[in-house]
Amino acid sequence: MHNFSLHAPTKVLFGQGQIARIADEIPADARVLVTYGGGSVERNGVLAAVRAALGARFAVEFGGIEPNPDHATLVQAVDLGRRERVDHVLAVGGGSVIDGSKFIAAALHYAGAPWEILTEAAAGRLALDSAVPLGVVLTLPATGSETNDGAVISRRATGDKLVFKSPHVFPRFAVLDPTVTYSLPPRQTANGVVDAFVHVVEQYLTVPVDAKVQDRLAEGILLTLVEDGPRVLVAPEDYAARANVMWAATMALNGFVGAGVPQDWATHMIGHELTAIHGLDHAQTLAVVLPAMLQLRRHHKRAKLLQYADRVWGLRDGSEDARIDGAIAATRGFFERMGVPTQVAGYGIRAPRIAEILAKLQDHGMTALGEQGGVTLDVSQAVLEAAA
Ligand code: NZQ
Ligand code: ZN
Question: End-to-end distance of the chain based on CA atoms, in angstroms?
């Protein structure tokens, strides 16, 4: 295991009824910007519960943050926040609302043009001094954004989708009430399970470094998703299954699985470009890229693929190659069982615009991806061709 420092400062408030506890986390004299998405939180009562918890506090609301949050929308929220002199941001939604709110919280304290936060991050130069304190009410278990320091922001005007990270945007607290996920449409439930699964895989299925706790934590999360992912699709109001899926998704990307181990993220980086160019949901891109990536990089990842085959899929018989084939097929089968197609063609796209995607990867400096930089543009091209 390599040296690591782990900064995990988000206070988690988990369980039914926890939205009311926001009252203990935000000062009575705070000026709060409440952010949300396209209206699901109005329909399912979550926003009403948030308003009740905020009570008499000064609050302004900004709705309309879209999936894959767009820079053009977010800068409007920054203007509103400046006008109203807000000193707290409360995000009520899924990964897009939370990521968008991290951007808003950072931009409110940023002197330059807000988009620079993303370009500076891409160039490895971002150093934010501060951000407005952020709290979160999570409504979609998927991204892990509720307890991490990352955000992914899109800019439709230029076809970009970029990541920034800063310790200042760690949510101060995150409410995780599994009952708020009962209203998720099946597509979003499934997306969340696939996204969390791939987060674990990108930090686990690399090369062995004898990190036993991280490996077994990863395997525990994967097994939980395989067990309860399909269950929440057929029984959306099964509290225990929803709670397990919710906690699995948070644990998948809060820093614990990836502490001191090699990390891959090639599937995610290629996936972000696929969303930017073709508009696929984030998890849909992962479902198409990951099986192709594992197949193409099976020699490099051989030892971990065998461990994954054994411990996650119970594949212990047959040749090593047959077990690896079995593990990749089982992964694909799991995504399909969740209702998420694993080829681009499954989304009605006849020919993915591979040359454009490769040009964007190059623009964004994504030319040596993977745990040891082995995913060059040629490898990305082969992955995209196999995923078509
Ligand atoms: O907008 P509303 O009306 O709220 O509807 C949303 C949206 O249409 C709906 N939804 C959310 N909670 C619901 C609900 N509908 C009914 N009941 C509920 N309880 O779900 C739709 C999708 O929401 P979105 O937030 O876009 O989904 P997700 O959580 O999957 O977030 C995806 C975004 O996060 C980024 C992705 O790239 C993408 O932009 N990611 C962020 C990461 C991070 N910060 O660490 C890591 C990830 O790898 C990922 O890249
Ligand atoms: Zn993801």
Answer: 36
